[in-house]
């Protein structure tokens, strides 16, 4: 199980899955360093309303700017952070970076809500809501500007403890989103019981919904269900104009994906946003 197939079907060695390897141990100490040395950075991917293409916010996506390997994607180090006790520290850094950026945009006259991914480990830490409240206050930001995305896949172990944290976060005024919806097991129970503001339908359904009727059925039914429960629906992974139109016709509220924009480093994201939010590119231009 140490190798997994990459996109070309070639088996590649995945050090993140190798619990005992020296390369994994190197990865852990490297990551610990990275967190303290400021090698962690965020890219921002915009989201827009499907109805009129106005920008509704961004998702912050973590990258490790490694001195020799370049930008390391989250899939290669989040599992390591989760297994090695570094996750809390990493999440604190990510939240601080994201909120610093939102405060900067606010100073430039742009209100940009941000979504940050949190791991299940973060939800087992019951001091997290209080620490987050402190961070929001320090940046002078309304909690409503922050959405926390929780992957459905990880919400299975120790639900009771996670539920307490989620309720505290909700009471704080932070929005909660169920990410990768449709890829887990207990979706309906979670939808019914958790204080969710939003669901994000997984890319695997969204990307095929324009061409595969079964995927379209899932997207339509999920959207109806979520709307019936008073939740907002985001479709992730919209790569083409055809997918955009199809997903719009299926009544989803918000779109995210390469068709609108790729994740961008903060400089380019700021340019992209200011062109649209400060009026240089007409509203409705993707
Ligand atoms: P996610 O939260 O579902 O994020 C969406 C992923 O899909 C991102 O990958 C994004 O770059 C990619 N994506 C966006 N639009 C498209 C598209 O149109 N087509 C395709 N093919 N892909 C698209 P990324 O940045 O590699 O992140 C992967 C996952 O890592 C995220 O999935 C999230 O679960 C996790 N992650 C990212 N940042 C953080 C973080 O700060 N903390 C934690 N705990 N997890 C994070
Ligand atoms: Mg996400
Ligand atoms: Mg997602
Ligand atoms: Mg996903």
Tell me what the structure shows:
The protein has 286 residues and is α/β, with parallel strands linked by helices. It has eleven helices and twelve strands. The strands form two sheets. It has an eight-stranded mixed barrel, surrounded by six helices. A two-stranded antiparallel sheet has the order 1-2. Helix 3 packs parallel to helix 5. The longest helix has 21 residues. It is globular and about 50 Å long. The termini are far apart. It binds ligand C2E and magnesium ion (3 copies). The site of one magnesium ion has 4 residues, from strand 8. The site of one magnesium ion has 4 residues, from loops.
Give a concise summary.
The protein has 286 residues and is of the alpha/beta class. The protein is built from eleven helices and twelve strands.
The unreliable regions are: 1-12
Ligand species? ligand C2E, magnesium ion
Helix-strand pattern: EEHEEEHHEHHEHEHEHHEHEEH
The number of helical segments is 11
Mean pLDDT: 89
Give Rg in angstroms: 19 Å
Summarize the amount of helix as a percent range. 40-55%
The biggest sheet amounts to:
8 strands, mixed, barrel
The side-by-side strand order for the widest beta sheet comes to 3-4-6-7-8-9-10-11
CA distance, first residue to last residue: 42 Å
From the spread of the alpha carbons, the general shape counts as globular
Number of beta strands: 12
Strand content: 15-25%
Q: What structural category arises from helix and sheet content? A: alpha/beta
What oligomeric state is this?
A: single chain
